[in-house]
Specification:
Low-confidence stretches: none
Number of strands: 17
Largest sheet: 8 strands, mixed
Structural class: alpha/beta
Oligomer: single chain
CATH superfamily of the largest domain: RuvBL1 DNA/RNA binding domain
Number of helices: 14
Helix content: 25-40%
Radius of gyration: 26 Å
Bound molecules: adenosine-5'-diphosphate, magnesium ion
């Protein structure tokens, strides 16, 4: 099984609007803190209830059960689900999906659900590895005439000098390791380690003796390592089962030019078969049994649960029972509706046998003050400067339409302000942006009023 070069398949852009959320913000007794240190504002009852679900999960008492967040759009359902994952610990996978994603012309619905389940199950692999670790003092590639002829030169080997608090050592390394050094953008002053057996290079961060240097990019500063350059090091790697599936799936087609080019056009066309998953599970179980790896069940968040159909619900009932199951959090903004694929009416469009397994938490609309507070936190996270009056107008818009809509206006308003040569957003910008864009309700109203002008 390939673990060394597993790249993460996390869906970062979907949680980009929730980067200010860092947890549920509860005190030791499980009460919601009123200061927004965790990034969450208000919604006290829902946060406290979610805290209990975290407790149940830690005590392994959520097996076979699930959580349902019910509330209007923009009341923080996604934010809350993310907070639950964060409360469960650092590096706990959070996989968000929308119910309608299961409908694809190429892949079975249950296959898509299965993939998302595996995205939400983490594996923490701990290995003691022989490494060379230290701060890069110098990095010198040694060139030679290309042995294949031609006019270019190629790197024959590279000299890297690493230092620790104890001493320094110069290594003569293979050109392939030079490639990885370049790929990781390593330069003198960086702290790195190189795995002795595989030659894999990992950049740990920038040495903190450079912490004062002017740097535009956010850097992580780390101390110069202690001990010898050559040593044994415990390395922890977090991956998801889906990361492993992808890394071990063979691309379809052969090695000829046409299929290589074909995979350029359709890059994701690797096939993960049932057999491959079984193989991976076997290896994973062996890793767990021998104590090399630890399972980290994460959170699978399924938004718009009413979009799932009866076939999906049947699958979910079974999947929740599995010993390899993440915590599943559903979200809905619907009341009674039909269960897709049937003509049965049910609360939230969910069959009763699945509903029976669910703990339900309601998320409530925000007050004007809470709305303003959340928008202010968002603006701060995105380094957007907002005049007090502009914030008030945005909060007003938020309570009239939805919090999400108001939050989404921040970036356009900043662009508008920027066009006028201003750094800060003033109330005028917000009003102008509001005139330019429609929220959903307003746009529906316009369409209805002018229905006669549109072709039906
Ligand atoms: N209680 C809260 N505290 C801080 N931010 C919140 C809170 N509730 C919602 N948000 C933020 O407001 C925006 C909309 O919320 P979201 O979670 O997408 O709502 P929903 O999923 O219910 O439609 C997001 O940017 C979210 O992070
Ligand atoms: Mg949402």
């Amino acid at each position: 099984m390939q673990i060394e070069e597993v790249s993460s398949t996390e869906r970062a852009q979907r949680i980009a609007v929730h980067t200010h959320v860092r947890g549920l913000g509860l005190d030791e007794s499980g009460r919601a803190l009123s200061t927004a240190t965790s990034g969450l504002v208000g919604q006290a009852a829902a946060r406290e209830a979610a805290g209990i679900v975290v407790e149940l999960t830690r005590g392994k008492k959520m097996a076979g059960r699930a959580l349902l967040l019910a509330g209007a759009p923009g009341t923080g359902k996604t934010a809350m689900a993310l907070a639950v994952a964060q409360e469960l610990g650092p590096k706990v996978p959070f996989c968000p999906m929308v119910g309608s994603e299961v409908y694809s012309s190429e892949v079975k619905k249950t296959e898509i659900l299965m993939e998302n389940f595996r995205r939400a199950i983490g594996l923490r692999i701990k290995e003691s590895k022989e490494v060379y670790e230290g701060e890069i003092v110098s990095l010198k590639p040694e060139e030679q005439e290309d042995p294949l002829g031609g006019y270019s030169k190629s790197v024959s080997h590279v000299h890297v000098t690493l230092k620790t608090t104890k001493g320094s050592k110069t290594l003569k390394l293979d050109p392939s390791i030079y490639d990885s050094l370049v790929k990781e953008k390593c330069r003198p002053g960086d702290v790195i380690y190189i795995e002795a057996t595989t030659g894999a290079v990992k950049r740990v961060g920038r040495s903190d003796s450079f912490a004062a240097e002017f740097d535009l990019e956010a850097e992580e500063y780390v101390p110069v390592p202690k001990g010898d350059v050559h040593k044994k090091k415990d390395i922890v790697q977090d991956v998801t089962l889906h990361d492993l599936d992808i890394a071990n799936a063979k691309p379809q087609g052969g090695q000829d030019l046409m299929s290589v080019m074909g995979s350029l056009v359709k890059p994701k066309k690797t096939e993960i078969t049932e057999k491959l998953r079984r193989e991976i599970n076997k290896v994973v179980n062996r890793y767990i049994d021998t104590g090399v790896a630890e399972l980290v069940p994460g959170v699978l968040f399924i938004d718009e649960v009413h979009m799932l159909d009866i076939e999906c619900f049947t699958y979910l009932n079974r999947a929740l029972e599995s010993s390899l199951s993440p915590i599943v959090i559903f979200a809905t903004n619907r009341g009674i509706c039909t269960i897709r694929g049937t003509d049965v009416l049910a609360p939230h469009g969910i069959p009763v046998d699945l509903l029976d397994r669910m703990l339900v938490i309601r998320t409530m609309p925000y007050s004007l003050e809470e709305t303003a507070q959340i928008i202010a936190i968002r603006a701060q996270t995105e380094s957007i400067r907002l005049h007090e009056e502009a914030l008030a107008v945005l909060a007003e818009i938020g309570s009239k339409t939805s919090l999400r809509f108001a939050v989404q206006l921040l970036t356009p308003a900043r662009i508008l302000a920027g066009r006028q040569g201003r750094e800060d957003i003033i109330a005028e910008d917000v009003r102008e942006i509001e005139d330019l864009f429609f929220d959903a309700k307003a746009s529906a109203k316009v369409l209805a009023a002018e229905a006669s002008h549109f072709l039906s």
